[in-house]
Input
Amino acid sequence: MFRRHLWAILYTIALVGFTVYIALDTFVLETVYGEIAENTAEATSSVTTAVTEVTEETTVPETTTTPATTEAAVVTEVETVITDNYYSDGNITITLTEYRENDTTIYVADVVLSSAEYLKTAFAKSAYGKNVTEKTSSIADSVGAILAINGDYYGTQETGYVIRNGVLYRSTGSSDNEDLVIYSDGSFEIISEGDMTAEELLANGAVQVLSFGPALVQSGEISVTVDEEVGKAKTSNPRTAIGIISDLHYVFVVADGRTDESEGLSLYELAEFMQGLGVETAYNLDGGGSSTMVFNGEVINNPTSSGNSIKERKVSDIVYIGY
Output
């Protein structure tokens, strides 16, 4: 009798232990698949491993001057201008504006670049992996970002193309995924992973591929319905989006939510707002507690997961403007 019960007890303990391990492995345990090493040019297109060169960067000090470049050569030096809501150095111009719509505070960074090379992405802890996370502001600081928003939080997903700064990290896709592709010339395209492989995108000049979605605006027209939502979000939420107005002219958008001061936006409300900014293409990034904007080293919005406290959630990646 005791032996029979003992086996049942041992089986239950083993089952509970396995369940706990699976939960920890999925949501907690940090697994690094590839570190982004300095002064290294190695890269591989396997699903699980990639290493690429990262050059140490620093934010341009307020008192310095920065070369203004053309495709041909450096032509002059332009003074860097930095205020609470403005940055300009001849290559990068960012104007920050706060809006109030649908009982929600929305922060818009209007970005004009001289070259697409200044639109970049970065991983938490300079590493590609699962559950590898840092605050948006910490990642931004590590790469000297002038402006940064949270990315697609690739680390919580098992599928979804991951191409960052011209390196393929994950090629496992899903036909249901709608991705934003940013090409080497800075142009945007929305694609379905069921229509094109990650390898094909890389061969076609993709520099960044973000897999969250959905697309909000395409060819200037809203591409979500009034009731459309994603499984990763509630109806009204903090939101993060990126859009392109014209060549090398972008908007980074973060909306507060889940507080008495700021209700949050539905996907359709976000799409309407982006369309009103004049975008040709706009894409929804990870939202909720992840939604964070950093400008000149300061967190601009009020990130929150529950509405009870204002604090940053750790994320796996950022989209940023910098050198």
Confidence is low (pLDDT under 50) at residues 16-24, 37-75. Helices lie at 2-27, 136-143, 198-203, 267-276.
